[in-house]
Amino acid sequence: MADYRAPLDDMRFALNEIAGLGAVNRLPGFGDATPDLVDAVLEEAGKFGADVIAPLNALGDREGCVLENGVVRTPKGFPDAYRQFVEAGWNGIWAPGEWGGQGLPVLVATAVSEIWHAANLSFALCPMLTQSAIELLLSHGSDDINAIYLEKLVSGQWAGTMNLTEPQAGSDLARIRCKAERTDGHYVLRGQKIFISHGEHDMAENIVHMVLARSPDGPEGIKGLSLFVVPKFLPDADGNPGARNDLRCVSLEHKLGMHASPTAVMSYGDNEGARAFLIGEENRGIEYMFIMMNAARLAVGMEGVGIAERAYQQARDFARERVQSRAIAGGAGPVTIIHHPDVRRMLLAMRAQTEAIRAIAYRVAACIDIARHHEDPEERARAHAFVDLMTPVAKAYSTDVAFEVADLGIQVHGGMGYIEETGATQHARDIRVSRIYEGTNGIQANDLVGRKVARDEGLAAGDLIKAMRETAADLAADEGGLDDLAEPLTTAAGALETATDWIVETYPQDPAPAAAGAVHYLRLMGVATGGWLLAQGALRAAERKAAGDADPYLEQKVVSARFFAQQYLPQAAALRTTILAGGGTVAAVSPDAF
Question: In the chain, what are the domains?
Answer without folding.
Answer: 8-155 (1.10.540.10), 158-282 (2.40.110.20), 446-587 (no CATH)
